Amino acid sequence: MSLSPDGNKVAYIVSADGQGSTLFTVDIANGGIAKPALSASGDPERLSYCEWVSNDRLICNVRMILPDANEWVSVNRLLAINADGTGVKLVSIRQGNNAQYFSNFGGNLIDLLPGDDGAVLLGRSHVPEEKIGSLIAKTDEGYGVDRVDTRTLATKTVVKPTRLATEYISDGLGNVRMMGVMKTAAGYDSGIRRYMYRPAGQNDWQPFGEYDFTANIGFNPYSVDPVENAAYGFEKFEGRLALYKVQLDTSLVKTKIFSRPDVDVDSLITLGRKNRVVGFSFATEKRQAVYFDTELKKLAASLSKALPNAEMVYFGGMSADEQKLIVWAGSDTNPGQYYLFDKATKKVGSLFASRPELAGYTLAPVKPVSLKAADGTMIPGYLTLPVGSTGKGLPAIVMPHGGPSARDEWGFDWLAQYFAHQGFAVLQPNYRGSSGSGDDWYRQNGFQSWKTAIGDVNDSGHWLISEGIASADKIAIFGWSYGGYAALQSGVEDPGLFKAIVAVAPVTDLAKLKEDDRNYMSYRVTRDFIGSGPHIVEGSPARNAGKIAAPVLMFHGDVDLNVDVSQSKFMADQLRDAGKAPELVVYKKRDHYLEDSAVRSEMLEKSIKFLKAKLQMK
After folding, report:
1. Which of 213, 448, 539, 592 could form a Cys-Cys staple with 531, CB 3.0–4.6 A?
2. Over 80: is that where the pLDDT of 262 sits?
3. Does 429 share its domain with 340?
4. What does the buried/exposed string (b/e) look like for 141-151 if buried means 16 or more CB atoms within 10 Å of the residue's CB?
């Protein structure tokens, strides 16, 4: 959802049939009704975000998955449109027939240029053009920043295109202050970004430092504060991410703002059309926000008490004068509600529910738990029990998260809630290999340290049984992406534990996962992340399919750009060769996330039917 500069209109995107989506705008100041402004069919175009650039005009990012030779590629383009759906213009660079190659990247929004009606700073990809027999050519190449008038398309270069540039950070006032450039090794992305900065009021780039995003080494800048003339970002302190700021002058003085001895400080809170830094957050049992802005701190606390079932309160947008704010409030049993808060009147008006279809349902509370692994380590996680259950002797699902460089957090989870509604206890462990708790917990990552990660997942199942929550003959595992990998590999390591396995878009063969990236710039990063050695075979469920005793159901989209559908097909073949009878459902023209309500509904229905049958439930 986005709030117009004057605070009188909102725009939001909702899903439509299939993978489609629709942009709606509402004149809330005049009691208007929601009106569609732009629709995307989902085949192939989809709307990912829209943002007001003036009180009557928006910029939208349209993404697509398109065929290219023998593969599928992700493409995005930026459009500008009036609130009533008229005046559509392509603001990405329109490539000519003489372009030397096709650019998948159509650009992104760098700065909303507060006070400059309808104009924005865009990061845009430039492709050289030349024509045989003509002296007219375009030689610019790489990623640069342009000021673009979204009404007339008048364009002015702000930062000349730079080859291998990957990132620009502005100060929210129209000044591009930082640039990140990819360092390569043998023609591949090395995983290191070289950052440069511009001193205030100057155009020349100065060296700033390097950041290795594969190992989280160095300072990773996120935002620039023009008042403090400093960049805010994250860097490790004693093995965990901490919040720092670095002065953008010749001193480059670095100051640690905040760190925790137990978890990473991993999120910067910015707000308003100037992207002003107002605080930061971190996740312990629950995510906690810390505000620099005392007014916002008091407001968040007040709203959390005043709004119904609003343990979590986030600010999602602000008018240009900072008097009106979009507020999102929710909890584990509240999927979320959007409100508009007016500072002048101190009134809160309800806007829209995040998931209106769930109105009237009683959702299951989510409880933070801690379970003991076989080596004595305490593993944190979240337990969701069916509403009204005794919490004992239940059918249960262990649901490891994806990533593996990720973690589960407390709050509403549609998958956990669905299975709880069907009568299952659901346990989501933050196994070792998860991010968010520092280097010691992350280990080498969930692939190279798979034995520890999968051991924690299986110990989660044993804990459910030992605590009497689950019946030993009615326990299953469900996972998506890396979670799907964990679900399958758990069956290799402890074949008698889970009585049914459901894996969505799973990694099944680590060698193939590396090789799938061979022709991309990211190959070296992927190769080093997965590593080499005995774990490539030992940690690949497809290479050990004969050890899996539980029945297996898999789902996969055939245009998955994260994990190729061949991973599931290979797993199914290996299981069949081992005398098993796996089920594999492949969804045409669907990607890693299966963002289609009908597809997701079918996936859930098939999953619950499979689980209840294999666990011999009524």
Report:
1. 448
2. yes
3. no
4. bbbbbbbbbbb
